[in-house]
Amino acid sequence: MKPTIHDVAKEAGVSRGTVDRVLNKKGSVSSEAERKVNEAIEKLNYKRSPVASALALHKKNIKIGILYPDVDHFFWKEVNKGIREAKARLDSLGVELLVRTTKNYDYRSQINCLDELQQQKVNGIVTMSYHYNKTNEKISALYEANIPVVTFLSDAPDSKRLAYIGVNSHQSGVVAAKMMGFRTAGNGNIVVIGVHRDLLCMEERLKGFMSKIESEYPELKILETYNMTEYRKEEEKFYKAALFETVAHILEKHPDMDALYTTSMTGSAAQAIKNSNINRKIILIGHENTEEIRGLMKRGYIDATVYENQHEEIIRAIDLIYKYIKDGDLEYSALKPSPLGILIKENIE
Amino acid sequence: MKPTIHDVAKEAGVSRGTVDRVLNKKGSVSSEAERKVNEAIEKLNYKRSPVASALALHKKNIKIGILYPDVDHFFWKEVNKGIREAKARLDSLGVELLVRTTKNYDYRSQINCLDELQQQKVNGIVTMSYHYNKTNEKISALYEANIPVVTFLSDAPDSKRLAYIGVNSHQSGVVAAKMMGFRTAGNGNIVVIGVHRDLLCMEERLKGFMSKIESEYPELKILETYNMTEYRKEEEKFYKAALFETVAHILEKHPDMDALYTTSMTGSAAQAIKNSNINRKIILIGHENTEEIRGLMKRGYIDATVYENQHEEIIRAIDLIYKYIKDGDLEYSALKPSPLGILIKENIE
DNA sequence: CTGTTAGCGCATTCAT
DNA sequence: ATGAATGCGCTAACAG
User: Fold this and answer.
1) Tens digit of pLDDT for each residue in B75-121?
2) What is the structure's pLDDT at A230?
3) What φ, ψ does residue A183 adopt, rounded to 5°?
4) pLDDT at residue B244 greater than cutoff 70
5) Which residue is nearest to nucleotide D7 (CA to C1')?
6) Residues 283-322 of B with CB under 8 A from A
7) DSSP codes joined into one string, B71-94
8) Among A4, B14, B24, B109, which has the minimal tally of Cβ within 10 Å of its Cβ?
9) B306: nearest CA in chain A?
């Protein structure tokens, strides 16, 4: 039978309360008692039961804040689903989830929302960083105020965020380049669209793609690189419209192009190509795995994407911060980069 | 605040015991009481707390049997890790895991082990099917004896297994064929090795691969298809030796071959090519994602594999049967096929 | 058929 | 500094 805190107390010749104080490092324990308890724990190989612990902690009312930009219907829908699943699970642990969204990627909106969550006295926050450096200060300030922040999808490595849950973004671009190489057999003319470049993850993707193409595919020529960063603060419909225009412009300007790579909004890019009614094949490589993308890929408008599982990542992020708040230590095993998925028509679920 | 069973009882004007009987369909409840309870549950939007439930069920001592062939060091090592993780989690729920392994894929060994687990009075079993049809009868008999069986990795669809956790194997072969198409640019001579063909998953992989090549890549010629089913019942070292010989034979017999596809044991196939010291490039496409395969892929001996995450699958399978034993119902959301991963050098973690 | 009671293992009081 | 008591939400056993 698994030893309980009771067994440990008996073995050590102290009360359950004392064992608990040692386990949770509460102090107020004589060094003599502490030694005996630790010996007993060792001897019996005691591990605390997370279920019982969670149940007992029920009344503590932990609050976790979640903040993300609710802009791309398809992509964030799956994040939202993950949040709902986590919520259902954490509900029964007496944990409250305060979910906030912004209408765009403006880092000032993010900072405002973070302020509000701080006022609500949350015990921790999960969010993505809206800007490669403008959010560092606020995140570090939250850390100093004893509110740990876990970033996901896009990191803020120079801030004092507790942890980052997400992929290696540079490598994500490298993999995309490799798929471009496969699909084109290493030969042809490419146009590149860099979207959201002040999101760290996007900039890194772009760099990864470019460097891989340059180093490994000398016969793949990049005709031009477009930049769609300035639209970042607009609402989604404007953003989409701008992308549509850009793609239409590209198709007209580059009649000799064979392929398009876009660091994000792959679904919209595919729609734009589709709507253009051109009668030559444009190979499209991009990112993410959403319902929209799967649909367009099945119909041949997207050739491959490189993605991370945003649904699982948000769940991992929430679990990570919950455990950190509850137990005070990081699960180091959860910190390695998330796997990079490759999506082609054939392996759509 | 979340409603508890107590709130429901108060709302319905009955005792907690009665609510519990309704919740767990224990019978012995008047239809009048049942109606009132259900109304109260509806009204309060009551959901039972899985943590509290698990804690209370602690004394019940549920036993789950797990059975798998511990043959390929690298592949099954990760299954084993998943089992250990699940064990640690279930330990604190008072669940006992009886883990059994066989030394090969002989279905008779499997049936013997299943018999033994039945004698141990397990409440459910997780295993893979060792043979496309010879295990159906035993699995169905277990079901009749009220011991549900969940298959993973390789299914027994014609048996009364409770559920299958794993990928669509046919599609797995299709994706492999697509990767072959990418890598060869749709042109060249292929040799195929069909391993373990009386495992349903392997046979389906092979069929998926062949059909995709035939239908989509007319310029890819399959020179020959080797069959390595008969070695299935041997121990691993014999199996590997046989594969080494086969690959050496293939390389000699087909000097015009460009690529090799193998339905399993991709690591060994790569080792065999490596050891042969031939000085032309043989493209190798196979399956799985193991430490061995990642190492050989990084060094260029494997070009791509299609895999399922065996680590997550065993965990999902164990959780599924645990919940079924505990709550008596299947989590239908867990039943869709697992995702098919594509591994190339660039997206190795 | 129904209500009551006693834990499951742990964390937090409140006494001492 | 330590021990004892209470309860988290639920289930099982018992009493009626």
Assistant:
1) 999 999 999 999 988 988 889 999 999 988 899 999 999 999 999 99
2) 75
3) -70, -35
4) yes
5) A56
6) 306
7) -SHHHHHHHHHHHHHHHHHHHTTT
8) B24
9) A347
For residue B238 the two structure tokens come to 């014999």
- Report, in ranges, which bases of strand C sit under 7 Å from a protein C-beta: 1-5, 7-14
Domain chopping of chain B, boundaries: 5-47, 59-166+310-338, 169-307
Write the pLDDT tens digit of every residue in A130-183. Answer: 999 999 999 999 999 999 999 999 999 999 999 999 999 999 999 999 999 999
- Pairing between strand B149-152 and B163-165? parallel
B5-47 and B169-307: identical CATH topology = no
Nearest CB to A49; choose among B50, B92, B178: B92
Nucleotide D5 C1' to residue B21 CA (A): 30
Number of neighbouring beta carbons within 10 Å of residue A161: 22
Tokens for A154?
């896009």
Mean per-residue pLDDT, A11-28: 87
What CATH architecture applies to the domain B59-166+310-338? 3-Layer(aba) Sandwich (3.40)
Taking contacts as CB-CB distances below 8 angstroms, the residues of chain B near A337 are 349
Reported pTM: 0.93
Question: Cβ of A183 and B182 within 8 Å?
Answer: yes
Binned at pLDDT 50, 70 and 90, residue A27 comes out as confident
Q: Does the distance separating the beta carbons of A54 and B91 come in below 8 Å?
A: no
Q: Report, at the CATH architecture level, how domain A5-47 is classified.
A: Orthogonal Bundle (1.10)
- For residue B9, which nucleotide's C1' is closest to its Cα? C3
Q: Looking at chain B from residue 109 to 128, which residues have their Cβ under 8 Å from any Cβ of chain A?
A: none
The residues that bridge with B194 in the sheet, in sequence order, are B227
Question: What pLDDT score was predicted for residue B235?
Answer: 72
Q: Is A55 in Cβ contact with B51 (below 8 Å)?
A: yes
> Which nucleotide has its C1' atom closest to residue A56's CA?
D8
Residue A184's identity, in one-letter code, is: T
CATH class label, A169-307:
alpha beta
B337 close contact with A: CB closer than 8 A: yes
- Name beta bridge partners: B17: none
Report the DSSP pairing between strands A149-152 and A163-165: parallel
Which H, E and C letters describe chain A, residue by residue? CCCCHHHHHHHHCCCHHHHHHHHCCCCCCCHHHHHHHHHHHHHHCCCCCHHHHHHHHHHHCCEEEEEEECCCHHHHHHHHHHHHHHHHHHHCCCCEEEEEEECCCCHHHHHHHHHHHHHCCCCEEEECCCCCCCCHHHHHHHHHCCCCEEEECCCCCCCCCCEEECCCHHHHHHHHHHHHHHHHCCCEEEEEEEECCCCHHHHHHHHHHHHHHHHHCCCEEEEEEEEECHHHHCCHHHHHHHHHHHHHHHHHHCCCCCEEEECCCHHHHHHHHHHHCCCCCCEEEEECCCHHHHHHHHCCCCCEEEECCHHHHHHHHHHHHHHHHHHCCCCHHHHCCCCCEEECHHHCC
Q: Shortest CA–C1' contact from A47: which nucleotide?
A: C9
Residues of A in contact with B89 (CB under 8 A): 50
Percentage of chain A modeled with pLDDT above 90 = 75
Q: Are A195 and A228 within 8 A, CB to CB?
A: yes
Give, in degrees to the nearest 5, the angle at Cα A236 between A195 and A279.
65
Establish if B54 touches chain A: CB-CB under 8 angstroms.
yes
